[in-house]
Structure formats: structure tokens, C-alpha cells
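Session log. Operator J.P. requested a structure for one protein chain; no other inputs attached. Running the standard single-chain path with C-alpha cell output.
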Amino acid sequence: MKALVLAGGYATRLRPITYVIPKLLFPLVGKPMIYWTLEKLRGFNVKEVVLAVNYLAASLRAAVGESYKGMRIQYSLEEVPLGTGGPIKLASQRVKLNETFVVMNGDIVADIDLEKMLRHHKETKALVTDALTEVKDPSRFGSGILDSTGRIIRFVEKPAPKQTISHLVNAGIYLIEPEILRMIPSERKVSIEREIFPLLARRRRLAGFNFPGYWFDIGNLSDYRRANFELLRRGALRGILRAKDVKIAESAVVKPPVYMGTRSTIGRRATVGPCLLIGNNNNIQRKARVSESILFDGVTVSDGSHVSGAVLGSNVTVGRGVKIEPGAVIAPNAQISDNVRVGRNAIIHPYKEINMNVKSGANVM
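Structure written below.
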């Protein structure tokens, strides 16, 4: 089995962090998002994975490399974004896709049984089987209607609120037969959901696999927070999660659920948690308080600072006596000076040095 992971988007809704870090390297409860996908594919006995890349491709390639736990990793570079169908066609020119293959959006994390999905794919004799999950608001996604045989008889991409046909939506995971490659035009942007799926539905060659497990589509920072906190809660039922070489002072207070990355330090009389994800090589210093936040790698929160409900990118330095309020996003390599207050929902761009208070809702570029 071979797999294609769609990883070429600009991730504009995750800016300003994605100015520096590609979305698939965002940490998700202790490991970058791409490795959740690779682990899922490895469990499905995939031997070869193609990452369809574009924006910040070099950073992703440097991090992931050419192999992962016995799987070969290749890269298909889009010179311009090609949608969802175009990358499949482009990748097929690099790797032989002459048997059933898997396609996954790189920004989704799902608890799905791919073996069961494959059996359904074969039973329905579909050309494409689309994984489906149920949501309250289908307007952000493509939605489909299933018949009694498990085939999709109608598919609408991102329906308007009054045009909702179903609450079963496209989960961004597909099993595809090679015949589909002939239906995808070359060298242009192609939406497989808009151009291919409706045609297959009319031909009764599009199947749907409705799975009950969790599913997160990480399209914006709100989605990213929710995915981290939900997965943290699921994984932390037995208490605090920690990696190797974590040092916690005896007088520190840890309120679960908390994840602590490797070589991180919690100082004397610091309070961390609840709902906190601490990356690798973080330093939470004396009397600091950090809760309901996501800290990427290499973050320092200095003495007496208070961080609540924020996202701090990699290598952010927070000075002493700083207060960072809920909804704030601080991009990588920013520095916050002592005694500064960062207001609610403020955004600070990469490499900025902040020496004065930042108002709520400000966008500091």
C-alpha cells in the first residue's frame, strides 16, 4: 500500500506562526502533527508515503527526512498550489500508483480503522471511498448522502447553511483506485471534491465510510487548541503526561491534565495547568503561572509571569512579571520584556521585541 499526504497549503488561518513553522510541524500533544498521520499509515502497513508539499517545503523535509520507522518518504513539490486533485495527479508522475492507494489531508487527525474502510471499499467496488464523520455544522466541509449499500448518492462541497443535505462530512481520508488518475486534468488546480466526487456519485462509484472515532480538522488556531486539549484529556486520564528528563521542583504545583515535553523544567513555586501543553526544552521559572495554553519548543516563561489561554510559538522568551491574557498568539522567536502586559486576542508576529503593553486585539507586525 502507498499513501499520499496533502501538505501543500499556505495555512493562512494559522498565521503568524506559519510564517515560520509549517502546519504539519505544529506540536500535537508532544509530537508534530505529521507524525500522527505517519503512525496511522504505518499501522495500515503502508510502505511508501509521498508528501505533496509547497509552502515551507524545505523545513518539512528537513524535519521528516527520507524514512520513518521503515516507511520510505518521498516528496512531490507543487510549484503552485494545485488543490486536492492536482497533487494526486502530480504525485502519480513521480510514484507508480497502480494499486489502491490512500490519500490523507495532512491537517486532520482521526481515530479511524483503515482496514475496515478498505474492506468496505472492496465490497462496494467503488473507485473512491471517502471517510465520513458527523458534525453539527457541515458548511465548512463537503457533505454526502449515503444509501443503504454504503455508497454516496449525492455530494455537495461546502453547502450554504440552507442547502445542507447531510451532517456527514468529508473527513479528508480517501481510498482511491488508479483509474481515477485518468479523470484528473494535468498541470492545473483541481478540486477532487467539486470536479470528481459529484460525477462518481452519479455513477454510483463513490462510497462513504462513516466512522465513529474522534476527528479533528486543524484549519485555524481555535481548531488547533481544541484538538490539543481534547487529545490531552483523552490521554491524561491516568494523570500527568511527561516525556523524559523533565525536572519539577518540589514546591511546584502541577494541575492535570498537563503534558510536559522532554528536558523541560518547572521552577520553584511555579503553578502549571490545568489544560497545558509544554513543548521540549521549555523553562517555566520561579513563581510563574501557566494554564490552558500551548507552548511550542524552547519557550521560557520567566519569574512571576502569568500566561493563560495563549499560544506561544517556538523559542519565545517571556520576561519577568509579564501577563499574557487569553486568546493571545505569540509567534516564534518573539521576546516579551519584563512587566509587559499582552491583552486578550493580541497577535505578535515572529522575531518581534515587545517593550511596552500590547492592547487587546492588537496585531503587532
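Operator note: The chain has two domains: 2-219, 236-364.
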